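Hi team,

As requested, here is the filled-out complex form for the NAP run. I kept the field names the same as last time so the parser does not choke. Let me know if anything looks off before we queue the next batch.

— J.
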Amino acid sequence: MRIIITGASSGLGEALALHYAQASNSLVLIARRSQKLEAVASQCMALGAKVEMIVADVSDFDLMKSIGEKLADSQIDRIILNAGISVGHSGGVTPFEDFYRLFKTNFLSVHALLEPIIPKLIAQKSGEVVFISSLASLLSMPTSVAYSASKRALNAYAEGLRYQLKPYGIDVMTILPGFIDSEMTQKNRFKMPFLLSTQAGVKKITDAIASKKHFYPFPLRFYLMIRIALLLPQSLRDKIVNFTNYKKGS
Ligand SMILES: NC(=O)c1ccc[n+]([C@@H]2O[C@H](COP(=O)([O-])OP(=O)(O)OC[C@H]3O[C@@H](n4cnc5c(N)ncnc54)[C@H](OP(=O)(O)O)[C@@H]3O)[C@@H](O)[C@H]2O)c1
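And here is what came back:
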C-alpha cells in the first residue's frame, strides 16, 4: 500500500508510520522538523518499508497544493491527515493570530493538500482518507475555543467529503481521540481524564481504520460522558463546564 501521513515526526503520526512500516508498504511522511522526520524515516526503512520524506509546513498552502499534485502522479491507497497543533488559553479573549494559526494548520491545510488528490482517488475508484480530529471538537471549552472550532470545522469537512466520495468506493474516516500522551499534551498543566499512551492510542486508531469505522470517538467512557453532557439542558451544562474550568485553575 502507498500511505501518506502528515505530522509524522512525533506523537501519533510517528507511531502510525512505525505501525505501517513493513515491506509491502510505501510511506510518504510529511512534517517540518527534518531531523525528527529523518529519524522516523530511518526506523521505518529498517522495518522494511519504502519511505519518501517531505519536509514541509502544511500551512504553506501553495506548497501543499504542489505536493498534492506530485503525490497524485501515483496510486494513493490511504492518506492520514494527522498534522495538528493546539494552543491553550488560560482565559480572556483568544488572540486572532492563534485562531488563524490553528485554522491554517488543523483545517485549511487539509484541503490545500487534498484538492489535487481527490480527483486522483475518484479516478482510481478506491482509497481511504483518514482525518485525525479530536473529542474536543464535540464540546468546546472556554480554554480551547480555537482548537475545538478548528477540529469541528474538520468534522464538517470530513462529513461532506464522505458523502461526496462514497459513490466512488472511497472511505472517509474521522477519528476523534481523547487525551493521548504526546508532545502536544506533555505541555498541559491540567488533569487529563482517561489519558492513553501513544501506543494504546495508535492501536485504537489503526484498528478503527482496519475496520473502516467512519466516525470513531475514543475512549468510549470519555465520549459517553461528553454525549451525556450534550443531552443536558444548556443551563446545567453551563454550570458543569464552568465548574470543570474552575478546577483547571483558569
Ligand atoms: N495528543 C492528544 O491528546 C490528541 C487528542 C486528540 C487529537 N489529537 C490530534 O492528533 C494529531 C497529532 O497530534 P499529537 O498528539 O501526535 O501531537 P504532536 O506529537 O505534537 O504531533 C504533531 C505533529 O504535527 C506536525 N505538525 C504540526 N504543525 C505542522 C505544520 N505546520 N506543518 C507540518 N507538520 C506539522 C508536527 O511535526 P513538526 O513539528 O515536525 O512539523 C508533529 O509531527 C493532531 O492533529 C492533534 O490535534 C491529539
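Two things worth flagging: The chain has one domain: 2-247. Residues 7-13, 31-33, 36, 57-59, 82-86, 105, 132, 134, 177, 179-180, 182-185 surround NAP (CB under 6 Å).

Thanks,
J.
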